[in-house]
Design a protein that fits this description.
Layout lengths: L4 H9 L10 H22 L1 H6 L5 H4 L14 H7 L11 E7 L9 E6 H14 L9 E4 L9 H11 L3 E4 L8 H14 L3 E4 L1 H13 L9 E4 L6 H11 L2 E6 L9 E2 L8 E2 L4 E6 L13 E7 L10 E7 L21 H6 L4
Helix pairs in contact: 1-6, 6-7, 8-9, 9-10
Bound molecules: zinc ion (ZN).
Length: 349
C-alpha cells in the first residue's frame, strides 16, 4: 500500500488534491508558511510572545525551516510563569483549560488553553489517525480520562465516531485494583470489545490478569498505547496474551493531546506534521541533531490559536529514525519516545 491514512490527512490539510500523496517538499512548504503565520499571530496577540520574539521578523528572518534556529525556545517555566500573557485570544473564546500540577515541583501549575477550533484539530487528527487500527466493525474501549468534554478520551471518542467506530468511554483503570480488572475483562468479553486504548502499564496488567484467569482468545484485535513510555516487555505481554496488534501514540497536553501516531508498519510513529513541527536538539547547545541521534524533543504548533507553543522544550527524549518508513510515506518518523526517568538518571544522555 502506498501511503497511509496519515498521508491522506496531511494531503487534505495542506490543500493537495484528493488522492495525492504529499511529498516532503509539500509538507515543508506548508510548515514554513504556517510557522511564519504563527510567529506573526503570536507576536501580535500575546504580550509574552511580543517580548520573547521582539528580535524576530517572520517575513525578514524566516526564509526556510533551517531559520528556525534563530527563534528562541520556550520552556515549561515560561508556561508556569507567564500564564495568561501567552494567550492569543480573548478569554471568552477559550473553551477548555487544562491545569497540570507537576508533583514535587513548587510554583504555579501549567495551564494550557484551547479554543473550540483548537480541539477540532485534534478530533480531526484522531478521526484519520485511528483508521490505521480500527474500522466500522470495531467496538473500542477507551481506558483514558473521558469524563470532561475536551479530555483526551472525549476527543478520541468523537474522532472515532466520525469514522463510524463506536466506543465505550470507560475512563482510566487503576494499577492495583484486581476487582476493577475483573470488571473491565468482563466488559471486554460481554460486549466483544475489539480495540483498546489506554496506558501501557494498565493494559499489560489487564492482559496478564486475563491470561492468569484462563481468558484466552478474546475479541481484542488491536490496542493503542498512549500516555507514557512503552516498555518492550509491556508491549510483548499485550501482544502475546491477546494475540493482537499493538500501536503506539505519542502526545502531550501541550501538543494538543494528539502528537504522533504509528502507521501499519508499527516502527516508531509519524508526527502530525501539518499541525506540529518537531525538532530534535542537543539539550546543551540547542542545535539541531542529525537523524538517528537521541536528543531533546522540541515542537512548534502550526495551527493552534488560543495558546501557540513556539519551539517548546517538552523535555522528552527522542530521535528521528533515519530510514524511510516501509509504508512509503514522506512523513518523518520519530523513534519511540524514551523513558524520561531513565534519561534523568543518565546525565548528558
Ligand atoms: Zn509509516
Amino acid at each position: 500500500m502506498a501511503g497511509t491514512v496519515l498521508d491522506a490527512w496531511n494531503a487534505r490539510k495542506i490543500g493537495l488534491p484528493e488522492g495525492a500523496l504529499p511529498r516532503r517538499e509539500d509538507i515543508e512548504r506548508h510548515q514554513l508558511a504556517m510557522l511564519r503565520h504563527t510567529l506573526q499571530m503570536a507576536k501580535e496577540n500575546s504580550p509574552f510572545y511580543a517580548k520573547r520574539l521582539a528580535g524576530i521578523d517572520a517575513a525578514r528572518d524566516i526564509a526556510s525551516l533551517e531559520d528556525m534556529r534563530k527563534i528562541p525556545f520556550t520552556t515549561e517555566s515560561d508556561l508556569r510563569e507567564s500564564g495568561l500573557s501567552m494567550l492569543c485570544v480573548p478569554q471568552s473564546e477559550v473553551s477548555r483549560i487544562v491545569t497540570l500540577q507537576t508533583s514535587g515541583s513548587a510554583g504555579n501549575p501549567k495551564r494550557i488553553y484551547f479554543t473550540e477550533e483548537d480541539q477540532e484539530l485534534t478530533i480531526d487528527f484522531f478521526h484519520f489517525g485511528m483508521r490505521v487500527m480500527v474500522d466500522e466493525s470495531d467496538l473500542a474501549l477507551i481506558l483514558l480520562p473521558c469524563e470532561r468534554p475536551g479530555s483526551v478520551g472525549d476527543l478520541l471518542r468523537r474522532g472515532l465516531a466520525r469514522g463510524g467506530t463506536d466506543a465505550i468511554p470507560y475512563g482510566p483503570v487503576s494499577r492495583s485494583d484486581a476487582a476493577l480488572d475483573e470488571a473491565v475483562l468482563a466488559l471486554i468479553r460481554e460486549r466483544r470489545v475489539s480495540a483498546l486504548i489506554g496506558g501501557p502499564v494498565e493494559i499489560a496488567r489487564l492482559a496478564r490478569s486475563g491470561a492468569a484467569n484462563g481468558v484466552s482468545g478474546t475479541s481484542v484485535r488491536s490496542v493503542l498505547l498512549s500516555t507514557e513510555y512503552v516498555s518492550d516487555e509491556n508491549r510483548r505481554t499485550i501482544e502475546k496474551c491477546w494475540n493482537c496488534k499493538v500501536f503506539e501514540h505519542y502526545g502531550t497536553t501541550e501538543s494538543g493531546l494528539g502528537g504522533a501516531m504509528a502507521c501499519h508498519v508499527r516502527e516508531g510513529y509519524h508526527p502530525r506534521e501539518a499541525d506540529l513541527l518537531f525538532e530534535i536538539i542537543d539539550p546543551e547547545s540547542g542545535r539541531a541533531l542529525p537523524d538517528g541521534v537521541w536528543g531533546e524533543v522540541v515542537f512548534t504548533t502550526l495551527t493552534r490559536r488560543a495558546m501557540p507553543f513556539i519551539r517548546y522544550r517538552i523535555g522528552d527524549v527522542g530521535r528521528w529514525l533515519p530510514a524511510p518508513c516501509g509504508c512509503g510515506s514522506a512523513l518523518k518518523r520519530l523513534d519511540r519516545i524514551g523513558d524520561r526517568a531513565a534519561v534523568k538518571r543518565r546525565p548528558g544522555a
